[in-house]
Amino acid sequence: MSSTALARIPVGVVVERRKAKSPWLDFLWRPVSVLVGNPSAAPWTAISAEAETTLFYAGEAVIELYRTETANYRSNLASGTPVLWVVLRATASGPAPALLAVTADPAEGEAFTDAGSDLVEAVPMPAAIAEAIVDFIARHHVERPFVKRHRERAESQAPARGEEEREGGE
Length: 170
Prior knowledge:
Layout: E1 7-19, E2 27-36, E3 45-49, E4 53-65, H1 70-78, E5 83-89, E6 98-103, H2 106-112, E7 119-124, H3 127-140, H4 154-157, H5 161-168
Antiparallel strand pairs: 1-2, 1-4, 3-4, 5-6, 5-7
Helix pairs in contact: 1-3
C-alpha cells in the first residue's frame, strides 16, 4: 500500500529508560524528545546515563502530513504548546520497545491509545517541525464548512409500534 502523505518529515526519537520500583518490571520506558532529521547514531545508542536513568537515541521515524488533516495540525499548533505523539510498542525480542510511529495529528495520537498495550507519549514539537507544518497548512488547507446533519424522525421511517401490533396481531 502506498502512502498518500504529501509531505514527510524525518525525525529521530530520544527515549528515557528509568529503573522501575516494581518487582514485576526492571525498567520503565518513555519518549522524551524528537530531533529534527536523522542523526547518524545507530538505534538504541546510549546518549547519557545517570544513577537510575539512561537516555537512548531510539531510532528514526517519519512524520507524514496529509491534506485532509490540516485542521487537526492547526489545532495542535494553536494550543500554544504544540506536541508530537510518539508511539512505542513492547517487543518479545528484547527489553527495549520498538519505535512504532510519530505523528503531529492529535486525532491519530489519540487513536494509537486505543490499542491498549502501546506506550503513547506527547513530547514537545521542535520549532523547525512546527514551521514545516505551518508551511504545509498554508499550501494545502481547504476550509471545510461545518454541516450539521439532521436525523429523520422515527415516525417517518416506519409505522408506530402500536399500529403494527393492532394491524396484524389481533
